[in-house]
Design brief:
Layout: H1 11-24, H2 37-44, H3 48-60, E1 64-67, E2 71-74, H4 84-92, H5 94-118, H6 121-139, H7 143-160, H8 164-178, H9 185-189, H10 192-210, H11 214-254
Antiparallel strand pairs: 1-2
Helix pairs in contact: 1-3, 2-3, 4-5, 5-7, 5-10, 5-11, 6-7, 6-10, 7-8, 10-11
Length: 255
């Protein structure tokens, strides 16, 4: 008969399994510092030697990293699926920007649909709370805060879809977005007509999710990202035209 004796799991293995699940589910994030050893051992209800054994195992697997005099952190490498060379390529070519937006539209549309169907009430409360912060930042006319909350809002939808592969892939993409690799989001939020439309688009997304309407949620996300693409196309054309006009002006005043 294909039966085997049950092996009792070591405490350190149980601790390691719990930490790796928190990382997998996106609860512990890249670069996040774990509590001090004594506090963490108390939370798990294990001895400090058992905790050290678990942390050593996770460090050996590249999930955690220890920094002298600073503590133990979730490995930063988990926050990026892209090599520095590839990031530089993305930043150097407009083609990558629009492919990025198409990729986001496909994945985030699906995430919004899944979130409308599978999000918990707490997930929806998080999404709603972030949108309220977006409204407050909008009233204060703070483009930097609006841009940061924009990324938080979209990531909260992906988290609410409860798909860990999608979560980690899109978190990497949004880190590049925050770093301005693809385009300057703050510049978009400085333009009043665009700011107003972006807020209303996010309102439509939030409303559809709160109503648990998957089709409307997906369409709202796709429409929003199509608007972003049109706005970027228009802005880049305007920037090129302005650069040419400046060259003409400089030529006129110097000849």
């Amino acid at each position: 008969m294909p039966f085997e004796k049950i092996q009792a799991e070591k405490l350190s293995q149980s601790v390691a399994r719990q930490i790796e699940l928190l990382i997998l589910r996106g609860i512990l994030r890249p670069g996040e510092r774990l509590p001090a050893e004594r506090e963490l051992a108390d939370r798990f209800g294990v001895s400090r030697p058992s905790l050290r054994e678990a942390l050593a195992e996770l460090q050996g697997r590249g999930l955690l990293v220890s920094r002298a005099s600073a503590g133990v952190f979730v490995a930063d490498v988990l926050g990026s699926a892209f090599s520095p060379a590839l990031v530089q390529l993305f930043a150097s070519h407009d083609e990558a920007v629009f492919d990025y937006l198409t990729f986001r539209s496909d994945l985030e549309g699906l995430a919004a649909e899944r979130a409308a169907l599978h999000a918990s009430e707490t997930d929806l409360m998080v999404i709603g709370a972030i949108f309220q912060k977006m409204e407050a930042a909008h009233l204060k006319r703070n483009p930097a805060d609006e841009a940061e909350l924009d990324a938080d809002f979209h990531l909260s939808i992906i988290e609410a879809s409860h798909n860990v592969v999608m979560l980690h892939m899109m978190r990497s993409m949004f880190q590049l977005l925050r770093e301005g690799v693809f385009y300057n989001r703050q510049a978009m939020f400085k333009q009043r007509p665009i700011r107003e439309q972006l807020l209303e688009q996010h309102r439509a997304i939030n409303s559809a999710l709160q109503a648990r309407d998957p089709d409307t949620a997906r369409k709202a996300v796709v429409d929003h990202l199509a608007f972003v693409e049109r706005s970027l196309t228009h802005q880049r054309k305007a920037d090129r035209n302005d650069a040419i006009a400046r060259q003409r002006f400089q030529h006129e005043v110097t000849r």
